[in-house]
Amino acid sequence: MKVILNQDVTGLGEEGDIKDVAAGYARNYLLPQKLAVPHTKEFLAQLEHKRAAIDKRKETKRMEAAGLKERLEAEEIKFSLPAGENGKLFGSVNNANVVTELEKKGYTIEKKRIEIPEHTIRNTGTYRIRVRLYDKEEAAVKLVVEGIVQHAAAPAQSRPRGRRPEATPAPAAPTAPVAETAAEVAADAPAPASEEG
Q1: Domain limits of the chain?
Q2: Per residue in 55-82, pLDDT tens?
Q3: Any bridge partners for residue 128, and if so which?
Q4: Is the pTM higher than 0.90?
Q5: CB neighbours of 82 closer than 8 A, spacing ≥ 6?
Q6: What is the CATH code of the structural domain delimited by 73-149?
Q7: Burial bucket for residue 61 (CB in 10 Å: 0-12, 13-18, 19+)
Q8: What pLDDT digit, counting tens, does each position of 17-67 carry?
Q9: Which of the two ends of the chain, N or C, has the fewest CB atoms closer than 10 A to its terminal CB?
Q10: What is the CATH number of domain 2-65?
């Protein structure tokens, strides 16, 4: 089924493009969302009438994309995540994480426009990710993933395995009466016999 796009549709085309699509896709998505209109003489006439304005908007978008590309390629996105000593992350970095970091830097980019090698990053290192902008324009953004090495807590390491820590003894009773009793016992005891040579 032929349709005329009312606006840019990622992965399909730009505003004003005439596209041949599956009838179900057109009926169930493009037409109800007003992303496209049927390819008829009436809509073709409207398209020709709006052609100059559409071309001007496209040119503006291309210029904005070129400027955005320059700014994005000057950026460095950095993640510091828990990792093992071999550099394997406890988790991963995906395009949703990148969107969040870009928003912190003031960029609003759709998640589906960000392409990460193998869809997720699971190891530390430096990567180049692609950000699709407008038409054929795309930016290569530097992404650095640093690992935070996880160590076990120090007390757990010093404790011997398999043994529970000993209980702390209760405070002793006052020692003065005990000392007196010991002295009395010593006084009552017979003196040891001395050996004569």
Answers
A1: 2-65, 73-149
A2: 898 889 888 888 889 999 998 999 999 9
A3: 142
A4: no
A5: 89, 90, 91, 147, 148, 150
A6: 3.10.430.100
A7: middle
A8: 899 999 999 999 999 999 999 999 998 898 888 888 988 988 898 888 888
A9: C
A10: 3.40.5.10
